[in-house]
C-alpha cells in the first residue's frame, strides 16, 4: 500500500467521523448542567427561594437580550455574585459561587437553557466566545455588583 493510499484511507475515516464530532449529543447539555449545578438553589423551574436565591425564570432571557446583559450574566457564572441584591422588590442575601471550573461552552449552554425558563422564547444567543471574553477580564465581587447596579439603572436588568 502506498503512502498516497494510506493518506486517502485516513482522510476518508476522519471525514466519516466529522458528523459524530458535531452532533448535538456531543454539545454541552444546558438542562443537565442546570439540574446538577443550579436547581438545588434556584429550583427546578428557576422560581428561586424567597429571601435567599432569586428567581431566574422569565428574567434571564430578558437580560440576555442586551449585549451588556449577556456579559453580566456570563460574569455572574464565571466570577460568582456576593452581597445583597433586589429582584422585583424582594431582597436576597444569598451567595452565588463561581462556576469558573466549567468550560465556556458549558456556561453558555446553561445560560441558553435558563433563558428559556418561564417563557416560550428561543434560547438566548450567548456563545462560548461571549463567555471567553468575560473570562479574559476577571472581576471581583464588588465589580460584579457594580455592573449589576449600572444595568439596573439602565433598565437592562428588570
From TrEMBL:
This is Cytochrome c. It comes from the Bacteria. GO terms for molecular function: electron transfer activity; heme binding; metal ion binding. SUPFAM superfamilies: Cytochrome c. Residues 1-27 form the signal peptide. Keywords: Heme, Iron, Metal-binding, Signal. The lineage of its organism: Bacteria, Pseudomonadati, Pseudomonadota, Alphaproteobacteria, Acetobacterales. Residues 25-118 form the Cytochrome c domain.
Amino acid at each position: 500500500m502506498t503512502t498516497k493510499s494510506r493518506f486517502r484511507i485516513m482522510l476518508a475515516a476522519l471525514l466519516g467521523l466529522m458528523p459524530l464530532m458535531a452532533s448535538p449529543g456531543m454539545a454541552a447539555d444546558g438542562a443537565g448542567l442546570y439540574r446538577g449545578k443550579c436547581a438545588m438553589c434556584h429550583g427546578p423551574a428557576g422560581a428561586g427561594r424567597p429571601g435567599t436565591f432569586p428567581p431566574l425564570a422569565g428574567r434571564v432571557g430578558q437580560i440576555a437580550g442586551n449585549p451588556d446583559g449577556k456579559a453580566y450574566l456570563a460574569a455572574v457564572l464565571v466570577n460568582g455574585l456576593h452581597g445583597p441584591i433586589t429582584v422585583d422588590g424582594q431582597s436576597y442575601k444569598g451567595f452565588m459561587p463561581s462556576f469558573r471550573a466549567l468550560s465556556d461552552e458549558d456556561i453558555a449552554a446553561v445560560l441558553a437553557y435558563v433563558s428559556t425558563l418561564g417563557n416560550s422564547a428561543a434560547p438566548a444567543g450567548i456563545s462560548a466566545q461571549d463567555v471567553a471574553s468575560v473570562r479574559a477580564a476577571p472581576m471581583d465581587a464588588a465589580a460584579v455588583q457594580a455592573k449589576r447596579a449600572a444595568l439596573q439603572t439602565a433598565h437592562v436588568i428588570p
